[in-house]
Design a protein that fits this description.
Layout (H helix, E strand, L loop, with lengths): L9 E2 L41 H5 L2 H15 L3 E6 L4 H4 L4 E3 L1 H9 L6 E5 L2 H10 L5 E3 L8 H4 L3 H15 L7 E8 L4 H9 L3 E3 L4 H11 E7 L2 H10 L7 E4 L10 H6 L2 E4 L11 H10 L4 E4 L5 H6 L2 E2 L2 H9 L6 E5 L2 H10 L4 E4 L3 E2 L10 H12 L6 E2 L3 H15 L3
Helix pairs in contact: 2-16, 4-5, 8-17
The structure holds iron/sulfur cluster (SF4).
Length: 412
């Protein structure tokens, strides 16, 4: 079958041609080029010390040799995890590939792995440490690989919101709570811990509806953070009208709502978003349908509600991968998720037409910060008996974060 070629692409920043070490300390924290390039980063966000000059100068062949040597010498003691949004140059070294929760669970089930190197972003490495066994050490190759969405819900702001809501709506009476806190997997460990301690849970993009149903059996309303879009899309699919959803802006008193709006709300959506998925628009979908009649449009639930409504299918990264893999040869797909994953889908399914809905190449700024040079540096240090860029979560936070994760797992 002959298919039309995929549309041409350009970059959202000329700096995407630079290697990530151009953005290391001593520059102040910033997300770097890519989808989060205009987001405001917290001043206390972790920074990556300058990658040693030796590693900045290595060519791909030498980096490859060093990474493969470390993998061979460390054997099963080393486990490299690759998130779907990582570039191909990293994914090729991953022992396991997946979304953040799947990877953390799989790593914890590999007790022989003393070192878990998470090629993803900061909250993912934290989740791996929360679920890890005591002897396992989790490493993030570049400390500046945070997540702008996770950073949009800061622990102090969530605590302030909770205090304000409790003052307005009261505390639990009988079997129900006025508010159940639910955090998306894409959040700091401190917020998962907060949910554990306050009768809430974690959710993923695959199980958000199950978790919300669980929450509505126990409480009158849900405080959902940090991604307003996953919360709104899920609540909308459950039949909750938009009038019963409010947005909580942490910079405004009562989140920018009146007391009555909060009393009537079924879901209070934190004002956070993923800058990668916010790029997708209804106009892009309409254009794809004009250019490729009959095309399937599939998007991630971190996209805005009108985009999800205009798509044929929406779901998690794992669902997107599975649906395209199971489709017939010659089928056509316009995909609304991170470009590295879409490119890999193109390579893995040459018999199908697959392209990113966004005609501009704009990867996740922080996934982009992981490069083989940082991986080689972290692994060479392991061979020398040193652990660099270890991610640790304190014992109390770990305990309550596990409580929240276990509530989610109990729903399966
Ligand atoms: S794709 Fe979005 S949610 Fe995922 S790490 Fe990047 S900014 Fe965060």
């Amino acid at each position: 079958m002959t298919t039309l070629p995929a549309p041409p692409l350009t970059n959202c920043s000329p700096q995407l041609t630079l290697d990530p070490w151009h953005f290391d300390a001593p520059l102040p924290p910033h997300y770097g080029p890519g989808a989060s390039q205009t987001d405001t980063i917290p001043l206390n966000a972790p920074t990556q010390p300058q990658l040693p000059a030796e590693y900045r100068a290595l060519d791909q062949t030498e980096l490859d040799r060093r990474i493969r040597r470390a993998k061979a010498e460390l054997g099963e003691r080393l486990l490299i995890l690759g998130h779907h949004y990582q570039r191909d140059e990293i994914i090729k070294y991953a022992d396991l590939r997946g979304d953040s929760f799947k990877l953390s669970e799989l790593a914890a089930a590999r007790p022989e792995a003393d070192y878990i190197v998470f090629c993803g972003v900061h909250f993912m490495a934290e989740s791996a440490d929360v679920l890890a066994q005591p002897h396992q050490q989790v490493i993030l190759p570049n400390m500046a690989a945070g997540c702008s969405m996770a950073d949009m819900a800061h622990e102090d702001d969530v605590l302030d919101a909770w205090d304000a809501l409790t003052a307005l709506l009261g505390t639990a009476s009988g079997a129900t709570q006025p508010v159940i806190p639910i955090t998306y997997m894409n959040s700091a460990a401190a917020l998962k811990s907060f949910c554990g301690e306050h009768g809430g849970s974690v959710c993923t993009s695959s199980n958000a509806e199950h978790v919300l149903r669980w929450a509505f059996e126990r409480g009158e309303r849900v405080l959902f953070f940090p991604d307003q879009h996953l919360g709104r899309n899920t609540a909308w699919a459950m039949g909750i009208p938009l009038e019963q959803m409010v947005v909580w802006d942490p910079r405004r008193p009562l989140g920018g709502n009146t007391p009555d709006q909060l009393r009537q709300a079924r879901i209070i959506l934190w004002k956070g978003h993923c800058s990668v998925h916010k790029r997708f628009t209804v106009q892009q979908i309409e254009q794809a349908r004009r250019d490729y009649p009959g095309i399937n449009v599939i998007v991630h639930p971190e996209c805005e509600l009108p985009v999800v409504q205009a798509a044929d299918i929406y779901g998690s990264t794992e669902l997107i991968l599975a649906r395209i893999a199971a489709s017939a040869p010659g089928s056509q797909w316009a995909v609304g998720t991170e470009i590295s994953m879409v490119r890999r889908l193109q390579q893995e399914h040459p018999d199908k037409l697959i392209f990113c809905l966004d005609p501009v190449v704009c990867p996740c700024s922080t996934m982009y910060r992981i490069h083989p040079a940082y991986l080689a540096w972290a692994l060479d240090n392991l061979l020398a008996g040193q652990v660099v860029n270890r991610i640790t979560v304190d014992a109390t936070t770990k305990h309550w974060a596990r409580v929240a994760l276990e509530r989610m797992l109990a729903l399966h």
